[in-house]
Design goal:
- By secondary structure, this protein is α+β, with helices and mostly antiparallel strands.
- It contains 18 helices and 17 strands.
- Helices cover 44% and strands 16% of the residues.
- The strands form 3 sheets. The protein has a 7-stranded antiparallel beta sheet, with helices on one face.
- Strand 11 and strand 12 form a beta hairpin.
- The chain starts with 8 loop residues before the first helix and ends in a 7-residue tail after the last helix.
Length: 510
């Protein structure tokens, strides 16, 4: 499951400090490396993953420059160590064994939660018992996704009755956006202390940023309320955070369990459902967007109907890292992408260029909308992206990326044929010409089609048909005489073009 939890000297020293034992410690960088503690009795075979308890009388024999140790007496070596305890070996050993046992029990409890189908809340509660302080986790958009318990003195979260979720207060989110100290903490990969005097009360927190791969997905915080935070707890918090990421990643792959708190707001907007104004304000504030920005809507799905795009984290991460002003969320089997076009580098053509290699490598289809002129218009934008996706699937052509303008005519014609059959909508003269060609072995239909498609350009039409201009002129004259067509009438030409599309949409779309 997870790499075994190992201790460092500081984790042991915390308990010595708690018992008010006298000691000296030289730990250096002190990475976690100890799986157990062993008593040194003169053996030659020593290991790097054990810390050795050295009796006072054997201090001179122990290789104190090579192996980490805890010495009952005074023993000054070059290796990381604790010494000067001046207590009986059995007393020190009992304490060290109990410390290791405490951490191993904690590790076993976390493993049981993750492997036994436990939740992030279960994880927070186990961590709260261990650290003797309340714990909560918020996602990358400041939605609280797990909480051990509410304790007096904690930050007062905002509750949304519609979603049933807790959120970091909007005023604090806005302060974090412009707090350089806070922004710097977002890059930390280990544990750290956050002590913000902007809070309306004094509260220290031990925090660990949560990363899924290289993507920041939230933060775990241990509030210093029940007991004082200890230096050795930093490493224990890092271990706890790793298990939290495991649960987040597991639940991210399950469509019924989403931990990206503000996705619901975008899903409601996409579906045209009324949204909570507080949710919308929070979402836009976090992303530094405004309601009247212009947005591009994308829908991405796998070419394999049985697969969900949600499982393709590489694609999701690549999009958010390469396209500024981009927010993505999963809905059913598609990845929905919203792009704020206030960024000058995110026009539709640039986005398409960025997407091309990504969707090729991931075997995806992409539908792209027209720009939506406000956040409340993305319902229409995502519907356009849906239509573009449907077009790709139904046409089964070579295109992997389609923008709505490329298939809008296809959609208009498809909608028009829902009530009446195609033949009854198309210009009846086209069908008459087809029958005439078949009966008389003429080529009037292909001639008329080429003439209309080439916008009545005689040289271009003749070249496309590989005939002489005189032959083309003769055919056009015969078509108008035989079928009573006036090709100078722009309305009739438009109807004929639309009819050509209705009869064979695949030949004219895109």
């Amino acid at each position: 499951m997870e790499e075994s939890m190992m201790l460092n000297l500081q984790m042991i020293a915390d308990h010595l400090e708690e018992l008010l034992w006298d000691y000296r410690m030289e730990a250096g960088e002190d990475p976690p490396r100890f799986r157990c503690c062993q008593v040194y009795w003169g053996q030659e075979q020593l290991g790097e993953d054990a810390v050795y308890l050295v009796p006072e009388e054997l201090g001179s024999a122990f290789p104190a420059d090579a192996y980490s140790y805890i010495a009952c007496g005074d023993l000054d070596g070059a290796a990381p160590h604790i010494d000067g305890l001046h207590r009986p070996v059995y007393q020190v050993m009992n304490l060290i064994v109990s410390i290791f046992q405490k951490y191993h029990d904690f590790e076993n409890q976390l493993n049981q939660i993750v492997t036994g189908g436990g939740s992030l809340v279960d994880l927070c509660r186990a961590g709260s018992d261990f650290f003797e302080n309340p714990i909560y986790i918020h996602d990358n958009l400041f939605s609280v996704i797990a909480l051990s318990s509410r304790v007096e003195g904690m930050l007062k979260f905002e509750y949304n009755e519609k979603s049933g979720k807790l959120y970091i207060p909007l005023w604090l989110i806005n302060e974090f956006k412009y707090d350089e100290d806070y922004q710097q903490t977002l890059t930390h990969s280990g544990a750290g202390i956050w002590d913000n005097e902007q809070y309306p009360y004094t509260m220290r927190s031990l925090y660990v940023n949560l990363f899924s791969g290289s993507s920041y997905c939230g933060r775990l915080l241990i509030n210093e309320i029940g007991s004082s935070l200890q230096p050795g707890q930093y490493q224990a918090a890092v271990y706890l955070a790793r298990y939290a990421v495991k649960l987040i990643e597991r639940n991210e792959s399950n469509d019924s369990l989403r931990y990206w708190g503000l996705e619901d707001t975008f899903i409601d907007l996409m579906k045209g459902t009324p949204v909570d104004n507080r949710d919308l304000q929070t979402t836009l504030s976090i992303l530094n967007w405004t309601p009247l920005d212009t947005y591009l809507c994308l829908k991405i799905r796998s070419q394999d109907d049985t697969l969900s795009v949600r499982s393709d984290k590489a694609l999701n991460n690549a999009l958010t890292s390469r396209i500024p002003g981009c927010f993505s969320f999963s809905y059913q089997k598609t990845l929905c992408v919203l792009i704020n076009q206030t960024h000058p580098s995110v026009d539709r053509h640039t986005v398409r260029h960025i997407l091309a290699p990504l969707v090729r490598d991931s075997c995806m289809y992409v539908g792209i909308s027209n720009p939506a002129d406000s956040i409340h218009a993305i319902h229409t934008g995502f519907r356009q992206a849906d239509i573009a996706l449907q077009y790709i699937v139904e046409e089964k052509g070579s295109q992997w990326i389609v923008s709505f303008p490329e298939c809008a005519l296809y959609y208009i014609c498809k909608q028009s044929t829902q009530e009446l059959p195609t033949e009854s909508l198309a210009h009846n003269t086209l069908l008459n010409i087809l029958h005439y060609d078949k009966a008389h072995d003429t080529q009037y239909f292909s001639t008329l089609r080429a003439y209309l498609i080439n916008e009545r350009n005689i040289p271009k039409t003749a070249a496309s048909l590989i005939i002489h201009r005189t032959t083309l002129t003769y055919r056009l004259q015969k078509i108008q005489e035989l079928f009573y067509l006036n090709l100078d009438d722009d309305t009739q030409r438009l109807y004929l073009l639309m009819s050509l599309f209705l009869l064979a949409p695949g030949e004219y779309a895109g």
